[in-house]
Amino acid sequence: MGGPNGGDGGRGGSIFCEADENVNTLIDFRFVKNYRAQRGENGKGSDCYGAGGSDLILKVPVGTLITEKQSGQIFADFNEHGIKVLLAKGGKGGLGNIHFKSSTNRAPRQFTEGDPGQEFELYLELKVLADVGLLGMPNAGKSSLIRQVSAAKPKVANYPFTTLQPNLGVVKVYEQKSFVMADIPGLIEGASDGHGLGHQFLRHLSRTKILLHLVDSAPYDEKIDPVEDIKKIISELKKYDEALFKKPRWLILNKIDLVDDIDHLKDRIIKELEWDAPIFEISAINGEGCKSLSRKIMEYIDSI
Ligand SMILES: Nc1nc2c(ncn2[C@@H]2O[C@H](COP(=O)(O)OP(=O)(O)OP(=O)(O)O)[C@@H](O)[C@H]2O)c(=O)[nH]1
Ligand SMILES: [Mg+2]
Fold it and tell me: Fewer CB in a 10 Å sphere around the end CB: N or C, the chain?
């Protein structure tokens, strides 16, 4: 009755992921965890092929890193707006029986099944993209500095661990010229063993260009020696990651409004720590030294 006329099944849709600067968080992925592109339609009689399933495009913020859950291998790195990567390819549609007709096989019953699409379990992580990372003990004044030099207004308070989540601030140095600064929770001795809030927040600094190590030059408790505090932070940094430790790092002596003889502290640092990188003196509260620090950072970023 007119011969074989079963068309092919449609191809299944594929899943792509695309970095989009208008997306800021991965929050949507917290609620919906399974993504499936549309299946291809079945082939039909009268030589009709099934329609292909449409692709699914997942939008993620710039800075998202996708790793395969089991192996931990990096699947894709969305470090720039517009990067689009195929995550899982849709399956091919099966062949309908019209493919099998021939002069000797006039009423073929053969067909092939479609292939299943690819399937993966992936882990999405958003890495903060900042040019400059702040590092230091709790209460050193990291959040105060970001408040002073940017429009970001993280909470500042006179107790340790005020900051529980990283904050970003845009520091506008000149018209059309700015950099991004990241404020993270304070570190303490033993952070690598989980003391305080641990040292996991340091991963947010992995892509910065320079680290600013903030030091409280006038600790409330007289038994605390700022030079010893600096050593503790350096040691935690080294334990966390050698690469982060090797990043350019400047020392920022903060709270100079409370210190009579800052040169004395500076001399000790240079001698006792054999410090040869830049040292700045600022007051994050009254702004002293902050503008010129921002300019120096901008110059440095432009020079690399
Ligand atoms: N006098 C003076 N006080 C400062 C200065 N900078 C910060 N402080 C005070 O020091 C305290 C801690 O400041 P924060 O900016 O919250 O310190 P932080 O490093 O962000 O602390 P955590 O988030 O807990 O790690 C607050 O009471 C600030 O007002 C400064 O330059 N001079
Ligand atoms: Mg803080």
Answer: N
Report the residue count for the chain. Answer: 304
pTM for the predicted model, two decimal places: 0.69
Among 134, 142, 144, which residue has the most ligand 1 atoms within 8 Å of its CB, making it the best to mutate? Answer: 144
64 lines ligand 1 (CB under 6 A): no
Q: Is the CB of 257 under 6 A from ligand 1?
A: yes
Pocket perturbation via mutation, ligand 1, pick of 134, 135, 137, 139 by most ligand atoms within 8 A of CB: 139
Cβ 142 under 6 angstroms from ligand 1: yes
pLDDT value at residue 128 = 63
Mean per-residue pLDDT, 274-301: 97
Helix, strand, coil percentages for the chain (3-state, nearest 5)? 25, 20, 55
Domain ranges of the chain: 1-127, 132-303
Q: From start to end of 47-126, where are the E strands?
A: 56-60, 64-68, 74-78, 84-88, 122-126
Q: CATH number for 1-127: choose from 2.70.210.12, 2.40.30.60, 3.80.10.10, 3.20.20.510.
A: 2.70.210.12
Angle at the Cα of 145 from the Cα atoms of 180 and 218, rounded to 5 degrees: 145
CATH topology classification for 132-303:
Rossmann fold (3.40.50)
Q: For position 277, what pLDDT does the model report?
A: 96
Determine the atom of ligand 1 nearest the C-alpha atom of 158: 27
Q: Which residues of 268-300 are buried (b: 16+ CB within 10 A; e: fewer)?
A: ebeeeeebeeebbbbbbbeeebbeebbeebbeb
> Are 294 and 173 a contacting pair, CB within 8 Å?
yes
- Alpha-carbon distance 8 to 209, whole Å? 54
Kindly state if the Cβ of 217 falls inside 6 Å of ligand 1.
no
Q: Measured from the CB, is residue 108 less than 6 Å from ligand 1?
A: no
